[in-house]
Write a structure and sequence with these properties.
Glutaredoxin; 5-stranded mixed sheet; 8% strand; single chain; globular; alpha+beta; 10 helices; 2 domains
Length: 213
């Protein structure tokens, strides 16, 4: 029996999990979830109700995206994503991504719900905590750990993708040239294309969708 991945196509946490599964070539049964109608099977496995959720054949459940990435890459890491992308410095960038950057990103994206600051102020905060440090690193090398991609790139990229999409015209004209190049590389990659299948929401009895395809 294949492990089951409950996932939501556009969720950045789910995208990073699918990127690592795809990179590792570890097959799962992919179940697309509608967040407003989470399947009872998913909630039984992980009452927290966030995606992604990976349910192994043993019954073990992995409910954090980074843990799913590591679980996949430990099995097969031909391009050394773990060795290249899991240094203390890159761990700090990943923590900033999931912490301060995600906080500012959510408020920049839904600024009307957070009127205590302007959208631009939320965006400035996001730039200061993550985009500037990324730019500094990516000016020196194409990826965060050197010339080749690693865990940190795949972990952070889906969130920068979301950030860039909030105001695409601003992003395209922004001074973050190296980060934009890195973003465009990942956006246009074969890996990313393979990770974004459009699926109907899963329901009990539906045929198995094997991922990666
Ligand atoms: N720490 C979790 C966070 C996952 C998360 O928050 N996912 C969002 C979707 S992007 C979610 O499922 N939110 C619950 C909801 O919207 O009901 C992880 O890394 O997997």
């Amino acid at each position: 029996m294949l492990p089951i991945l409950y996932s939501f196509r556009r969720c950045p946490y789910a995208i990073r999990a699918r990127l690592a599964l795809c990179q590792a070539g570890v097959a799962v049964a992919l179940r697309e979830v509608v967040l407003s109608r989470k399947p009872a099977e998913m909630l039984a496995a992980s009452p927290a109700g966030t995606v992604p959720v990976l349910q192994l054949a043993s019954g073990e459940v992995i409910a954090q995206s980074l843990d799913i990435m590591r679980w996949a890459l430990v099995q097969r890491d031909t391009d050394s994503w773990l060795a290249r992308g899991d240094t203390p410095e890159q761990r700090a960038l990943m923590a900033t991504c999931d912490g301060a950057f995600k906080h500012a990103l959510d408020r920049y994206k839904y600024a009307e719900r957070h009127p205590e600051r302007s959208a631009q102020a939320w965006r400035d905060g996001a730039v200061a905590c993550l985009i500037q440090p990324l730019e500094q690193r990516l000016t020196q090398a194409a990826q965060l750990g050197g010339d080749q991609p690693g865990l940190a790139d795949a972990t952070i990229f889906p969130f920068v993708r979301q950030f860039a999409a909030v105001d695409a015209a601003w992003w395209t004209a922004s001074p973050w040239i190296a980060t934009r190049r890195w973003h465009d590389h990942w956006s246009g990659s074969a890996l990313m294309a393979a990770c974004m299948p459009k699926l109907a929401p899963w329901q009990p009895g539906a045929p198995v969708t094997v991922f990666p395809p």
